[in-house]
Amino acid sequence: MNVGDAAHRSGLPAKTIRYYEEIGLIRPARAGNGYRDYSGDDIHRLTFLRRARNLGFSIDDCRQLMALYHDHSRASHDVREIAAAHVTAIEEKVRELQSMRSTLQKLIHACHGDDRPDCPILDDIAGAALPGDKVGSAQM
């Protein structure tokens, strides 16, 4: 099947499929005319990659997960280790986002939101201290 059909069946854009081929995540056969010819196994790999990427795994993680998926002598511990490291990274990102939200909420509360030109939000972004701050802006 061609890349358009593969895109439709896998739920990935054709551009992403071509990128995955470029970086060696998939290797579709070539038809006699030189066009890519995607097999059912290629669609399965693409669907696997789509799901892994939707879970936030990096390309390198996807490469490792796919290798482990195809290695029937793998230890499930290896897969679990990759997933656990990913959860740790997600938790750190959540903490960073919560800190950013807290900072922005404080800045929004400090902003009068009227016709005056002074703006604590812009002052903070520029590095100026808010009234009551010890040193500089709120921590992120």
From TrEMBL:
**Span of domain HTH merR-type:** 1-68
Sorted alphabetically, which keywords does the UniProt record give? Cytoplasm, DNA-binding, Transcription, Transcription regulation
Fetch the InterPro entries from UniProt.
CueR (IPR011789), DNA-bd_dom_put_sf (IPR009061), MerR-type_HTH_dom (IPR000551), MerR_fam (IPR047057), Tscrpt_reg_MerR_DNA-bd (IPR015358)
Q: Which Pfam families match?
A: MerR, MerR-DNA-bind
A molecular function annotated in GO for this UniProt entry is:
DNA binding
One GO BP annotation is: positive regulation of DNA-templated transcription
Signal peptide range in chain numbering: none
Going by the entry's taxonomy, the superkingdom of the source organism is recorded as Bacteria
Where in or outside the cell?
Answer: Cytoplasm
What Gene Ontology cellular component terms go with this record? cytoplasm
Q: Which PANTHER family match?
A: HEAVY METAL-DEPENDENT TRANSCRIPTIONAL REGULATOR HI_0293-RELATED, REDOX-CYCLING DRUG-SENSING TRANSCRIPTIONAL ACTIVATOR SOXR
Protein's name in the database: Cu(I)-responsive transcriptional regulator
Q: Which organism is it from?
A: Mesorhizobium temperatum
